[in-house]
Amino acid sequence: MKKNQFILQMKEYAEENHVPIMTDDGLHYLLQYIKKHHVKKILEIGTAIGYSAICMCGVSDDIEVTTIERDEPRYLEAVLNVEQAELEDRIHLIFQDALEVELDDTFDLIFIDAAKAQNIKFFERFEKNLRQGGTFITDNMDFHGMVQVDEDKIESRNVRQLVHKVKNYIAFLQENKNYDTQFLSIGDGLAVSVKK
Ligand code: SAH
Ligand code: MG
Which domain does 114 fall in, by range? Predict the structure, then answer.
């Protein structure tokens, strides 16, 4: 199967099975960033079915991705997709809760795209694995526009708490003097935090 056709097939699968893969414009930004900054070693929190990991590897043949997923059916689907893309030697899939994973490697880019409520924990856990001058990119900073909505107007308690957590993470990044963070309204909202 041709590469583009396979990417489209993964997108269709994601849509049919309600897998929240990156939007086209968010992914486009991420891939451009990788290209522009010659990113080679990437850590991804939240593999889902391997769609974004496979796309990131497509930027250049010398890119390696380590990616973590805690959901077994998704992890197994990712294993199949990575095999089909013939990227087993460049994509390292870890089936575990990211908050229990210990890594020694150093990465150029850490892409956080998992449970929104835990972003601060992911950031703090993997900070030691990001090289100086490296970048954290966090997805879903707008939470489908919910971050803009007045918290009192959100009826679901669950959603309200999640919005609160996303706002805490925004404040955490803004106050973090070790990083320069930019917030971009691309896709579902991205935070780009460069380690000084
Ligand atoms: N990056 C993927 C989409 C990821 S969706 C893409 O664009 O193709 C978010 C995924 O993060 C889900 O599959 C969810 O199971 C996983 N996830 C959430 N919290 C996690 C955690 N603590 N550890 C590992 N995976 C987690
Ligand atoms: Mg996302």
Answer: 3-195
Which ligand has the minimum distance to the alpha carbon of residue 11? 1
Does the Cβ of 74 fall within 6 Å of ligand 1? yes
- pTM for this predicted structure: 0.96
Q: How far is the CA of 110 from the centre of ligand 1 (A)?
A: 13
Which residue has 């150093």 as its token pair? 106
Q: Is 69 in the pocket of ligand 1 (CB under 6 A)?
A: yes
Give the total number of structural domains in the chain.
1
Find the 153 Cα to ligand 2 centroid distance in Å.
Answer: 24
Q: Please tell me the number of the ligand nearest to residue 116's CA.
A: 1
What's the CATH code of the domain at 113?
Answer: 3.40.50.150
Cβ(97) – ligand 1 distance below 6 Å: yes
C-alpha dist (Å) from residue 70 to 3, 36, 85, 95, 100: 27, 31, 21, 6, 10
What is the tens place of the pLDDT at every residue in 46-70? 999 999 999 999 999 999 999 999 9
Pairwise CA distance, residues 53 & 66, whole Å: 8
For residue 41 the two structure tokens come to 């070693």
Could you report the per-residue pLDDT of 103-123, keeping only the tens digit for each? Answer: 999 999 999 999 999 999 999
